[in-house]
Write a structure and sequence with these properties.
By secondary structure, this protein is α/β, with parallel strands linked by helices. Helix content is 45%, strand content 13%. Helix 1 crosses helix 2 (35-48) and helix 6 packs across helix 8 (214-221).
Length: 261
């Protein structure tokens, strides 16, 4: 493991998944607004991984608990104002050597870097869900990032067993810029043809070798998250997806989306 002391800000799937992976290599501090729920998520993930890293994650509702970390990863919801506010707070209390990172999947890294007040110590660390299984990390550096920040970010990815690919600071980066127009096209096809979601997903799984069909993947990502990413990359979000979000049918996490769970 690299010598970084990892702090994570967030209590959702990405934050808890990253904490689970990092715990296999050392101590981790996780800040969450609902620490009990976050603790339960992390413990379930660690148990599923065979218990490796059990006891290595300390969860707190006090943001100051991250003060001792040398590499702090913000992993809250894709809301630009909320991310900028939290990163500003973290940047204001960080020591000179501390690197701040964000797991945003589509927002401008340059803008978030400037919100911290220390863009030379900032990086986009776009991990994918489920974090324990997905090898890729998209690394996105603001123009101000210094050589040490770049080196330490790559070293951290390697220490966590991830493959880092540096991509430009463009909306959606690499994966989501290509992926979400395709996912939304599947919804358009559904509407135009009346095909069942399972039929469309079977076509892409069995005919194109995809591990998961596009409609099942939208459910897994969360339709609210999909809308946020679609808007960030300038994609046409299908009216059906917007209507489903308005109805609370957000996918797997809500128990209903294109499929029932």
């Amino acid at each position: 493991m690299s010598a970084e002391r990892i702090g994570i800000a967030g209590g959702g799937a990405i934050a808890s998944g990253l904490a689970c992976v990092a715990a296999e290599h050392g101590q981790v501090v996780l800040w969450a607004r609902r620490p009990d729920a976050a603790t339960a998520k992390v413990e379930r993930l660690i148990e599923k991984r065979g218990g490796l890293g059990a006891g290595n994650v300390s969860v707190s509702a006090d943001l100051d608990s991250l003060a001792g970390a040398t590499f702090i990863v913000e992993a809250i919801a894709e809301e630009p104002a909320a991310k900028a506010e939290l990163l500003a707070r973290l940047g204001g209390s960080a020591t000179n050597g501390t690197i701040l990172a964000t797991t945003t999947s589509a927002l401008s890294i340059g803008e978030l870097a400037r919100a911290t007040g220390r863009p030379h110590r900032f990086v986009g660390l776009h991990v994918f869900n489920p974090v324990a299984k997905m090898e890729l990390v998209e690394l996105v550096f603001p123009g101000e990032a210094d050589a040490e920040t770049r080196e330490r970010a790559r070293a951290l990815c390697a220490a966590l067993g991830k493959v880092a690919v540096e991509v430009p600071d463009t909306p959606g980066f690499g994966v989501n810029r290509l992926l979400f127009p395709f996912l939304f096209d599947a919804v358009v096809l559904l509407e135009e043809t009346g095909l069942e979601p399972a039929a469309i997903d079977a076509c892409m799984r069995l005919g194109a070798g995809h591990p998961m069909g596009p409609l099942a993947l939208l459910d897994y990502v969360g339709l609210d998250v999909a809308v946020a990413i679609g808007r960030a990359i300038g994609a046409d979000v299908p009216p059906r997806v917007l209507a489903m979000v308005a109805e609370g049918a957000l996918g797997k996490k809500a128990g209903a989306g294109f499929y029932a769970y």
